[in-house]
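To the structural biology subgroup,

Please find below the input and predicted structure for UDP-glucose 4-epimerase, which we are adding to the shared reference set this quarter. The sequence is reproduced verbatim from the submission form. If anyone notices a discrepancy with their own records, reply to this email rather than editing the shared folder directly, so we keep one authoritative version.
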Amino acid sequence: MTWLVTGGAGYIGAHIVRALTAAGLQPVVIDDLSSGHASFVPDDVPFVNGSILDLALMEKTLRDNSVEGVIHVAGFKYAGVSVNRPLHTYAQNVEGTRVVLEATANVGVSNLVFSSSAAVYGTPDVDLVTEDLPKRPASPYGESKLIGEWMLRDQGIATARTESPLRHTSLRYFNVVGSIDTSIYDSSPHNLFPLVFEALIEGRTPRINGDDYNTPDGTNVRDYVHVADIAAAHVEAAKLLISESPIEAAYNLGSQNGLSVREIMDAMARVTGIDFTPEIAPRRAGDPDRIVATGELAARDLDWRNRHSVDDMVRSGWEARRAAN
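Predicted structure (tokenized):
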């Protein structure tokens, strides 16, 4: 069975491509390389350099490769930047998802795994985020992901009695880190791990934004999950769709416990062997004390669990980033 991975030349998408191959499913990639890297796509994986906004190209890619399912990862993923670029965010994430759905409907592809985000919840004031928590996204990015989920829901309802009813699920997750292949690294200019790695490589001192939060060590607590575990969950979701087994509309891929920024910094120093004391900078506006999700539903249906320690996350991410130099 062939699965199209939109955004498959990106950090997360490229890991999903490798997980599909390992599971015996044939991946195909479409990516416009706006943030991805052609070198992330294995030589033996068909690669279409183009935009998901191009309906004709999407339909051609689906038909030419006899695609039976789509893992939709492509999108503009920078929540903070989306506040200043809402129209760009909506074009990429909302219109992009609409075009993907139109293309799949026109070609008769009826399985879709949507890479959503825990940003759909906003900043909930609870210890553990569950799937039924009210959705209050705090950025255009989070809003765009929630709209994407709505579109999947509505298309599923609309096609329920057709020859190709849409089967779908959305995976919501927070901070994805680490690597399974030194040829793939997180090149985001906004995520914590690459920011710390770049500082250490350049001889600068990493910084913590605020150490007076209501947490055990005063720094923010977040869900950090290894990209290998995220990729595996996407593949399990794809397999569940193929089997026509019951599946939830959405799953949290959460750690249940979370890690603080200071714990991440301690692991960075421990694993890299670079001794440093992080600088303390002012808080960032709107940063909540703690956001951690439960992954109970995903554990039940998608064999989801954290298989990697914080040291595993740091070590694999650091090795991949150094290999890129």
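Summary notes: Residues 2-173+225-252 form a domain with the Rossmann fold fold (CATH 3.40.50.720). The mean pLDDT is 95.

Regards,
Lab coordination
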